[in-house]
Amino acid sequence: MATKSANVVARVEPDVKMKAEAVLERLGIPASVVINALYHQIIITKSIPFSLSVPSIENMTDEEFDEMMNTSLNQAKKGEGEKSSRVFEELRSEMTDRRQN
């Protein structure tokens, strides 16, 4: 992992920023982690890693979000999930493999 960091400055609509940060706060993920992950995906895929088309489905409601989060929490409590250290280990391995190819 790199020991140095660089700043990214971007202008974002205030409402968009507020809504996105509210979701990230509920997930317990800092915006910097999401931005760093996005940059890694751009490097790995050499593209924008998501569709830039107009979605055909509506945004998730608060109730749907809460249900999804509760399902995930229950899975974690039962030990049905992966440990984050294992997930990051796999990601690092995949990134190393792709860099070498």
Task: Put the structure in a nutshell.
By secondary structure, this protein is mainly α. The protein has 2 domains: 11-50, Arc Repressor Mutant (Orthogonal Bundle), CATH 1.10.1220; 59-101, no CATH class.
Question: What would you note in describing this structure?
Answer:
With 101 residues, the protein is mainly α. It folds into two domains: 11-50, Orthogonal Bundle (Arc Repressor Mutant); 59-101, no CATH class. It is built from four helices and no strands. It has helices at residues 14-27, 31-45, 62-77, 84-100. The longest helix is centred in the last third of the chain and has 17 residues, at 84-100. 0% of the residues are buried. The model has no long low-confidence stretch (mean pLDDT 82).
